[in-house]
Amino acid sequence: MQPVRVGIIGGGIWGNYHLLAAKHLENEGKAQLVAIATRTEASASKQSAAFGIPGYTDYRRMIDEQDLDAVTICTPDHLHREMTLYALERGKHVLVEKPMDLTTRGCRAMVELAERKRLLLQVDYHKRYDPYNMDLRQKVRAGKIGEPYYAYAYMEDKIIVPTQWLKGWAAESSPFWFIGVHKYDLVRWITGREALAVFAHGSKGKLTMLGIDTFDAVTACIEMEGGLTCTIDVNWILPAQFEAVVNQGVRIVGSEGIVELDGQDRGARYGFAADGMLTPNLGAIAMGDSVFGWKEPHGYFVDAIKDFLLNALYLKYGGELEQLAERYPSGKDGLAVTRVAQAVETSIREHRPVQISEVL
Ligand SMILES: NC(=O)c1ccc[n+]([C@@H]2O[C@H](COP(=O)([O-])OP(=O)(O)OC[C@H]3O[C@@H](n4cnc5c(N)ncnc54)[C@H](O)[C@@H]3O)[C@@H](O)[C@H]2O)c1
Q1: Which of 80, 187, 240, 299 sits most deeply, having the most CB atoms within 10 A of its CB?
Q2: Helix axis angle, 331-350 to 104-117, nearest 10°
Q3: What is the distance of C-alpha 56 from the center of its chain?
Q4: Which CATH number covers residue 182?
Q5: What's the pTM?
Q6: Is 305's C-beta closer than 6 angstroms to any atom of ligand 1?
């Protein structure tokens, strides 16, 4: 079997998961991690040395010079569009990080090009790969809670995310663009309902005081089809002392029942003299082991990326795109989420409810 040959663009915090996922499938003979492109010489050579692959500082050269089947993109949000279009134009399947693009126009251009070229365009909305969320969806879709009446989802990051992790580009983002999109994608995916209107509020203070001009927190009330209302609360200013990088959950109440998940606390607790209390996230547990030598990373962070590579492998061996439909977060899903995030932005700015039909 010839593996899927993949190049990765972006080798920052999230790029590490892309590299790990590809490396794991390489160990299984299903993928080949061919090259990496980052912005600076220093980061390119660091990842290139760590993974034993060529490193580029020009992603176009990587795509043009290497014989790739697929490209994964994990660069700051505003760069996703140009990189995706370049890769698709040259016949590569693409996994792009969320949010797909900050504009519906950009998302549409990406979807249209992928369709014209008959290529896979997948978006890394990885909450769909959390087995608990999958189960929750199955129950809701099977009618177990009856008619869904309201959904509530929250996601809260530690302040190190905008101040240290996204150094240099947090002000281009917001808690809704960075994490709220995950929660809207999740509720939409679970219920199968589309948004009709949005009323949102944003709070500023702490981060602007620290010199990063963006929202601390956002609340979005989303009216969805069939009388469903969805409230999403997000912030990225949890104190450094909080026991995990992220706190999150979802609950959906219907005429016949309720489903809810504390997505952060699955019952495991660590307490270390060096680190204090920690609650491990199911997204990234047992990420490979230097003590016992096993290499397989676990958790839905990497499962979502591996799914893309396996989809690309399926296509390489003659599978049809149509057969994969509805089985992965597609470009069209990415577009639907960006549409709502744009409505959230407009609603905050203009302090009024925004109809989704207004967002073209
Ligand atoms: N799926 C998730 O849950 C999740 C979680 C965190 C981040 N993300 C997304 O992943 C993306 C990257 O986030 P991050 O936290 O890794 O950011 P980061 O700042 O740590 O890394 C960004 C990387 O992009 C590279 N880059 C920047 N400009 C480039 C260019 N012109 N050419 C090539 N490489 C370039 C940088 O060198 C760096 O390696 C963002 O879109 C973010 O929203 C997704």
Answers
A1: 80
A2: 170
A3: 24
A4: 3.30.360.10
A5: 0.97
A6: no
